[in-house]
Write a structure and sequence with these properties.
The structure holds 2 protein chains of 2 kinds. In chain A, about 40% of the residues lie in helices and about 25% in strands. In chain A, a hairpin with a 2-residue loop joins strand 4 and strand 5. The chains are: A alpha/beta, B alpha/beta.
Chain lengths: ~270, ~300
């Protein structure tokens, strides 16, 4: 299933935050959304899930398959949210509930959305923890978020997002709070899951390096508008828009990078 | 001539009912006047503990820290004589007093250094903020502006060594390199040394003259920034640099460093990096390489 955003406009308190955003996500593809802070990347992600702040108005269209998400009644939107469209947030230290075991957080929405019984939910949860490569999935099921490291927590957050087999995953700066070595693992995991499960992923990030590593298509946002969209190689190597070029030029001289990374086989 | 000399520093955290954690286990480092040293490493490797020990905020278990030939003493309740070291903390939402005007907080620093000629507004100007912000409170500012105020406050005391403990990690991506460059420029202009701690190698590379790489309480490699970047010698440094994704549009996934940082309360025998090292040898499991500038048996000085 695809997600098509056309002419999305969001105003908060009379101020226009998004001024007509067009994006299209395909299954099995990672769509990267780049731009400075304040350019409206995160708002685009939140609008898809109907999580915009109070007092904001959204117009335009967000179509999931043949359903229009912006005009969906709350009850049906609740079925989409967490079920068909899931989100991974920036900071796993605050997006997970500190006082519930990760098992509880993994199975709660699964039982609600899929209507499975306790034992089945648990079985699926342990399987998911294995899939996101948490060592000792059985024991991890009963642990609390503070007993995990940052990278492991983000893996748990990804597992939670994947629990109801969504079609679309929105990842808002999923690796910004992590160390580079941990980031590498999480990026590989995201890419692998996207290929394996046929997810349509919207990856919001300011890091063009991250973008270059996992995204298939790249869109660049500025002041609430998408200024450039295209295939990864084209946008990052031959940017057509001056703003994209200035973003790339502001990077500390990427040409002289040493320590060539070995080409990955599993991408 | 070194300004700050850290020699074989050991800092232990003791908490009742828990094993003693050696957060810093024999680290040596020096910072000269006007020099910018970047200290990098993964979270939990002891970077912040080292910085806090240099400020006297954590007691030293073994080894020594000398600043300008004088040993650094733990910070107590009494008025401090050693105001030559100032620190900029990680979270500007927590390090500024929310109930006092920013001008008053900067004035504290000026009083410490006995500076009557400079006004707090002058310092705000130096960090690139309008002069009339002195009468505002911290909540009126964004994260990047707050961190600039924290830098102005640290500079007010006329430090000869400025320490930044992850001063940019709480900021938005667009503000990060600006604030880092500002810190570098201000420190170098005033002839002070700067010890800049960060887990973000790409920013450290921008501003540091020398890079020190820390792993599990020890400095594993020290060297000139350009050299370390172009030719990393310690396998851990190599892994760190390889993990940075490159914006070349090729779609190459960054290399992964397998395993997690071991528990500092129970470090592995021999070289601390040996369980994760791709080039591990027999000697690595027995003996800890305690030499520099590259603490690795592959690069043993002859």
């Amino acid at each position: 299933m695809t997600l098509d955003i056309t002419d999305l406009k969001v105003t908060i308190g009379g101020k226009e935050i998004l001024r007509g955003v067009d994006l299209s996500l395909q299954e099995g593809r990672v769509h990267g959304l780049a731009g400075e802070s304040g350019s409206g990347k995160t708002m685009t992600g939140l609008a898809v899930l109907g999580l915009l702040p109070h007092g904001s108005r959204a117009t335009g269209s967000i179509a999931l398959g043949d359903r229009e998400l912006l005009t969906l009644p709350p009850k049906e939107l609740n079925r989409v949210r967490g079920g068909e469209v899931a989100m991974v947030f920036q900071d796993p230290a605050t997006s997970l509930h500190p006082m519930l075991t990760i098992g509880k957080q993994l199975t709660e929405h699964m039982r609600h959305h899929l209507g499975v019984d306790k034992r089945e939910a648990r079985r699926r949860a342990v399987e998911l923890l294995g899939k996101v490569r948490i060592p000792g999935a059985e024991e991890a099921y009963g642990r609390f978020p503070h007993q995990f490291s940052g990278g492991m927590r983000q893996r748990v957050a990804i597992a939670i997002a994947l629990a109801c087999s969504p079609k679309v995953l929105i990842a808002d700066e999923p690796t910004t709070a992590l160390d580079v070595t941990v980031q590498a693992g999480v990026l590989r995991l995201l890419r692998g899951l996207c290929d394996e499960l046929g997810l349509a992923v919207l990856l919001v990030t300011h890091d063009l390096g991250v973008m270059s590593a996992v995204a298939d298509e790249v869109s660049v946002m500025k002041d609430g508008l998408v200024v450039e969209t295209g295939a990864r190689g084209q946008v990052l190597r031959e940017p057509a828009h001056p703003y994209t070029r200035s973003l790339l030029d502001s990077l500390p001289d990427a040409g002289s990078d040493p320590a060539p990374a070995p080409r990955s086989e599993d991408s | 001539m070194t300004l700050l000399a850290i020699d074989d520093l050991v800092v232990e955290h003791r908490s009742p009912g828990r094993p003693i954690v050696r957060a810093v286990a024999g680290a040596s480092l020096s910072v000269g006047p006007g020099e910018v040293v970047g200290l990098v490493g993964e979270s939990g490797c002891g970077k912040s503990t080292l910085a806090r020990a240099v400020c006297g905020l954590n007691p030293v278990t073994e080894g020594s820290i000398t600043f300008d030939g004088q040993p650094v003493t733990p910070l107590g309740l009494r008025r401090r004589k050693l105001t030559g070291i100032q620190m900029v903390f990680q979270d500007p939402y927590a390090s500024l007093n929310p109930r006092r005007r920013v001008g008053d907080q900067i004035a504290d620093g000026l009083r410490t250094s006995g500076d009557t000629a400079t006004a707090p507004a002058d310092l705000l100007e130096r960090v690139g903020l309008p002069r009339d912000f002195v009468s505002r409170h911290p909540h009126e500012f964004s994260g990047g502006q707050r961190q600039r105020i924290a830098i102005a406050r640290a500079l007010a005391a006329r430090p000869r060594l400025l320490i930044g403990d992850e001063p940019i990690s709480a900021l938005d991506a667009s503000a990060q390199s600006q604030v880092a460059t500002l810190m570098r420029d201000l420190a170098v202009d005033s002839g002070a040394g700067l010890l800049f701690i960060s887990h973000d190698l790409s920013v450290v590379r921008l501003i540091a003259d020398r890079i020190a790489v820390m792993y599990l309480g020890r400095i594993v490699e020290v060297g000139n920034t350009a050299e370390v970047w172009a030719n990393p010698r310690h396998p851990y440094t190599q892994a760190l640099l390889r993990a940075i994704p490159k914006p070349d549009g090729m779609g190459v996934l960054p290399a992964e460093l397998p395993g997690d940082v071991p528990d500092p309360a129970d470090p592995p025998a021999g070289c601390r990096f040996n369980p994760r090292c791709p080039q591990v040898m027999d000697v690595c499991r027995d003996k800890e390489p305690d030499f520099g500038p590259v603490a690795c048996w592959l690069h043993e000085p002859k």
